[in-house]
Amino acid sequence: MGKRKKQQRDAATTSVDEAKAQRRLGRGTWKVMDAGATMVGAVLAPRVSNAAWRAVTGRKPPSSSRHPELSTAEAIAWAAIGGAVIQIVRTVVRRGVATYWVKSTGDLPPGMKHLDRDS
After folding, report:
1. C-alpha neighbours within 13 Å on the C-beta side of residue 80
2. pTM over 0.85
3. Which of the 8 DSSP states describes residue 109?
4. For residue 36, what pLDDT is reported?
5. What average pLDDT does the chain have?
6. For the CA atoms of 84, 85, 88, 94, what is the dihedral angle to 10 degrees?
7. 79 and 73 in contact (C-beta within 8 Å)?
């Protein structure tokens, strides 16, 4: 009888250890996916921002907002459009990765908590 209890304890310990290993693996995988999404967003954002500027103004985007021949209004518009587009691209890419994680695992990415929607 003592041998059976020891086997049960060993099995319980093994399943706890396996669960901890899975959580560590999940955290590490999420960190890699999130970092990859951040890099993809950083590469895409300037391209999308430049394309948006060309679509809106019909001109090449300014290379420097400090250039004295560039009007203040245009420099501010470039900063506003560029900054907004960059944040939108980063948000869309990172949300896409988080959505993929939820669809793949059935749970939120590590470190995220459910939103409190009772308010």
Report:
1. 7
2. no
3. P
4. 93
5. 83
6. -130
7. no
DSSP conformation letters of 5-61 = HHHHHHHHHHHHHHHHHHHHHHHHHHHHHHHHHHHHHHHHHHHHHHHHHHHHHSSPP
pLDDT digits (tens, 9 = 90+) for 20-70: 666 667 888 889 999 999 899 989 989 998 998 899 889 888 888 888 888
Amino acid identity of residue 69, one-letter, is E
In angstroms, the Cα distances linking 105 to 26, 82, 98, 101 are 10, 35, 10, 6
Geometric angle at alpha carbon 26, from 24 and 31, rounded to 5°:
95
Phi, psi of 86 (to 5 degrees): -60, -45
Distance (Å, whole) CA 54 – CA 17: 55
User: Residue 75 in contact with residue 62, Cβ under 8 Å?
Assistant: yes
Local structure of residue 108 (DSSP, 8 states): P
